[in-house]
Specification:
mainly alpha; 4 helices
Length: about 80
């Protein structure tokens, strides 16, 4: 699915909050790598989506499947620690 400007803004907002959340848990270099990895997975899912019933609904479903940015940051940081 190709995102509109509004969809891109929603993804950028999610990544921004994720980055801010990861700063609480990881050193800067690890945080940057984690953001790149999560964004890559997120964009892959978006590319594979068909956009039904609408872009906004499909995108929200994908983001809900990923979880909240804070939840993703917590899970990612605990995985790194282990």
């Amino acid at each position: 699915m190709k995102l509109s400007e509004a969809g891109e803004g929603r993804v950028r907002g999610y990544i921004f909050v994720l980055e801010r959340s990861l700063r609480s848990f990881l050193p800067r270099d690890m945080m940057c790598a984690a953001v790149r990895e999560v964004e890559s997975h997120l964009r892959e899912r978006i590319d594979q989506a068909d956009g039904a019933p609408s872009e906004a609904a499909a995108l929200e479903r994908i983001l809900a499947d990923f979880g909240t940015p804070l939840g993703v940051a917590q899970a990612y940081s605990s995985e790194i620690v282990l």
